[in-house]
Structures are given as C-alpha cells and as structure tokens.
Amino acid sequence: MTKSICSFNRIKLQDLNTAINKTRNLSYLKENLKSLAFRSIVPKPRVSEEIITQKKRNKPNFLLRSDSHIVQPITDKNFLFPLLNRFQNILKDLYITMEDIKPPSRVKGMKILQKGEFDTTYLVPAVKIENERIKKFLQENKKYMLKQRAVKPIIDLENGEKLILLNPSSKEYLQDLQLEYHNLELHYENFNHLDIFQAILPDHLDRVSSYSSIGHILHLNLNEDTSEYKHLIGQVLLDKIPYAKTVVNKQNVINNTYRFFEMEILAGEENFITKTKEHGCIYELDFSKVYWNPRLSTEHQRLVSELSPTDILYDVFAGIGPFAIPAAKKGCTVLANDLNPESYRWLENNVKINKTKISTYNLDGRDFIKTALKSHLIDIWKTNNKTNIHVAMNLPALAIEFLDEFVGLFSDYSTTLPVGEMPVIHVYGFGITEQDVLTSVISKLPGLQLDDLQLRTVRNVAPNKNMFLIKFKLLKSILFRSDFEEPPTKKKLCSN
Ligand SMILES: C[S@@+](CC[C@H](N)C(=O)[O-])C[C@H]1O[C@@H](n2cnc3c(N)ncnc32)[C@H](O)[C@@H]1O
C-alpha cells in the first residue's frame, strides 16, 4: 500500500500541476477543494489541513501543505473525475468512511439555526447497474448500500441504468467493484440531531444526547454551559424527532410542594397536556402541574412485579398512578393517595381510562396513613389474616420522615385486634451512601434492626446523590407500641 501511494503521489504531482492551472473559478475552488480533492486523493495522515491562499498574477492559486512537500490538488471537475477513475484502486483505500460524513466544520459555534450552512458535498462510491440486473443486485448487496438520512441510494440514470450509492466504509467489498464516484449533496435534512449537535457545540461542552419523552413533549436538562445554544438545540430536536411538538428545559427551580419542575419552552407549542404509555397502561397528565419521570419506568414495573393479584397496595405518594394503576390491573386491591390536587385529578382520570378500580384520596401522607390505610388494614386483618400488604412510599427527599407515623398506629387496639400479615414497606430515599438512608430508617422505627432491611440503589440522580429503595416488613411491636411520643401534628408540605 505504501508503495502505491508513493507512485500515486508522483503521478498526481504532474497531473495536478496541470489541473490547478486550468482552474479559474474561485468559489468552486472554495466549495470543493477539501471534499473533492483533499478528502479523496491525498492520504489524510500525510497532509495537514492548512490551506494557503496565494495571489499569483492576480489569479487565485490554492495549495495544500503536506509534511514533506507542497501538493497542488485537483480542483477542476472535468479533470478530476477521469482522474479519479484512473486511480480508483488506490482511492478505494483512501476513501472516506461513513464517520467522515458530517455537517461542514463552519457550523461549529452556530447559535442561531441557519440551515443553509449545512450544505456540503462528499464523493461516495457507487456502481452502475443495468435495469435487468438491478433486482438481483439489490437482493445480494443491500447491506452495502449507502444509508444516510433522507438520501435515496438508487439514482435513475438517463440511459435507463441505475446508479447505486455504496457505503464508503465497506472497504473489502469495494475492492472488487468497478466503481463510479458520485458527488453526493447533503443538506440540513440529511443529518440527525446527534450529528448536528456534535458539529455545532464546542468540543468542551457536554454532549446533548439524552432527553426524556412524555408524549409529544421532549424534556431536556441542559446545564448552564449550553445556555447560549438552548433554543437552537430545541429547534433541532423539534425538526428531527418526528413525534415532538414541544421541547422544554427543566429549570433548576423545583416546586417544593408537589415535586414538579418549573419549565422553559425551548421550541414548539406551549401545550403541556399529554398522554404517555408505560407497561401497557395509559397516563394522561399536565406535565407543568404534576410529577412524571419516565426514568422511573423500570422501578414502577419492578415493584408491581413483586405483587400477587390477591395483595393489597397502599400508595402514600401515588402521583398520577404508575404503581397504583398496573397493580390494580393485576387484580390487587389498591388505595392511592396524593396531596397535589392536580395529581389527584389526573390519577382519577387515569384510573378511569385504564378501566381499573382504585380508592383514591387527596390527603397529606400522614393523614392517609392514620385514616384510610389504618381503617382498611383493620378490616383486612379481621376478614383475612393471610393477605400480603404492601405500602409504597415514593417521595425520596422526605418519605423516610413519614415512617414514624407507623409507630403506635394501632396502640389503641393493642389487646383486642386480630392481626394478620405485617405490611411490607417500600420506601424510597435520597442519600450519598447506603449507610445514610439505612441509618435514617432505623432512627424512625424503634426496634427495627439493620438486618431487617433490604436496600437497592435505584439510580444515580446527580453527583453525590443516589436514589435508594429500602424494603422491610414492619414489626408488630412498632405498630402497637404505646410508650411513644406523638409525631408532630403540624402538616408538612413536602419537597422531594
Ligand atoms: C416523587 S413523586 C412520585 C409519584 C409517583 N409515585 C411516581 O412514581 O411517579 C411524589 C408525589 O408525592 C406527592 N406529595 C408530596 N408531598 C406529599 C404529602 N405530604 N402527602 C402526600 N403526597 C405528597 C407529590 O405531589 C408527588 O406526586
């Protein structure tokens, strides 16, 4: 290979000298110098990307400086194409790969979307196939065809033949073909959002690769560094993600009571009422007024998978129902509560549209435990002491605080009440380490030992902030304890 590049360079130097003298069109040179000549002919590692413009007798003259010598590149189209065909065996190895097909480097740092700036051209390998052979060719070679967004890889030629554009990365396959070179024109429409963000955003910024979808809403969590680019990012996502109609950025301000975020519209319509699906259930919601996090989808499924159809679920911080509704669909008896009137409204709506039966409450979590949960549990224990009882408490910033509500919950019944299965608590908490949350749980429930607790890390929420699940069976001694101090009666409105 080294040998052929050397001989190629010798031939090229002569021919290129002739070619450069033929060229008089400055804008053509500017447009095509890199994509036609530099990218295709000159081996990349040998040539620096520096382009020197010189004025010679008032005529433009373009030079590429290589490590060892100055190479004058081919810049005349009429000269270039025959030459390309002549050197095609060498070119096969020097050719661009799919990774090289990107938006032009001039878009780096763009803050206001100018779609025209994405226009560019690349030479891609192609083969001419007669009409009679096309069907068979496609059957056998489909996987080698060029796959670029919104590019048709089969072009009708005037003589009835077809030109098939090929994937330039398939080097071995290309070796055996009689290749043509097609000047592929690409525009904004031909790049996906990841290509575009990579091309636009300065290299030191975090990649914008992830967003959450809630129905038609795309939800981003951009940091300060990207703030100059945020509207452009929103517009690109709106253009590129087919179902997106609204793109929002989560503000740092969190609504302290009901755990939903303030949001800023980056692009699209201001409509937050949306519909989403999770594990076969439908949820309608107003994303600007209630809590919803698609990243908890696995957690919702995991908890519900632990329930049997005869079990009972008390969901203290139910939101719009992602534990409660699938549990009820499974056959469980469910009591679901949320303090946010909007969550409660959408919870009721979702119970209905999923055709489930759930008792819903709009209470503070402590009141729910003291009233609805307590009286329902008493009835269950009276009639069936074998039923499994689960309590879901997903308000990670504060739920552990609510655990003391179980201390002495049944102290007024201690002698007479028939007692069945003890409730299994699934409580979520934030902490840096596992020890943080385990210690907080133990401190709330006298008599509970570390060995009684199971812990699982749900997800890393931020640097130094993890979400944990702590699961344990309540002790009878805790529920019936009588020598305890009443938890403060003052209602707490909660942040997460
Ligand atoms: C983190 S969200 C979880 C919602 C739902 N379980 C889920 O997984 O999507 C916590 C919920 O608790 C509700 N909440 C906050 N403080 C509350 C309180 N004191 N009593 C009852 N619900 C509360 C919020 O409105 C919110 O819907």
From TrEMBL:
It catalyses: guanosine(37) in tRNA + S-adenosyl-L-methionine = N(1)-methylguanosine(37) in tRNA + S-adenosyl-L-homocysteine + H(+). It comes from the Eukaryota. Keywords: Cytoplasm, Methyltransferase, Mitochondrion, Nucleus, S-adenosyl-L-methionine, Transferase, tRNA processing. One of its GO terms (biological process) is mitochondrial tRNA methylation. SUPFAM superfamilies: S-adenosyl-L-methionine-dependent methyltransferases. One of its GO terms (molecular function) is tRNA (guanine(37)-N1)-methyltransferase activity. Residues 211-476 form the SAM-dependent methyltransferase TRM5/TYW2-type domain. GO terms for cellular component: mitochondrial matrix; nucleus. Its EC number is 2.1.1.228. Its main location: mitochondrion. S-adenosyl-L-methionine binds at residues 300, 338-339, 364-365, 394. It is an enzyme of class 2 (transferase). It is found in: Mitochondrion matrix; Nucleus; Cytoplasm. InterPro entries: MeTrfase_TRM5/TYW2 (IPR030382), SAM-dependent_MTases_sf (IPR029063), TRM5-TYW2-like_MTfase (IPR056743), TRM5/TYW2-like_N (IPR056744), tRNA_Gua_MeTrfase_euk (IPR025792). Belongs to the class I-like SAM-binding methyltransferase superfamily. TRM5/TYW2 family. Belongs to the TRM5 / TYW2 family. Specifically methylates the N1 position of guanosine-37 in various cytoplasmic and mitochondrial tRNAs. Methylation is not dependent on the nature of the nucleoside 5' of the target nucleoside. This is the first step in the biosynthesis of wybutosine (yW), a modified base adjacent to the anticodon of tRNAs and required for accurate decoding. Involved in mitochondrial tRNA methylation. Specifically methylates the N1 position of guanosine-37 in various tRNAs. Methylation is not dependent on the nature of the nucleoside 5' of the target nucleoside. This is the first step in the biosynthesis of wybutosine (yW), a modified base adjacent to the anticodon of tRNAs and required for accurate decoding. HAMAP family: TRM5. Monomer. This is tRNA (guanine(37)-N1)-methyltransferase. It comes from Dimorphilus gyrociliatus.
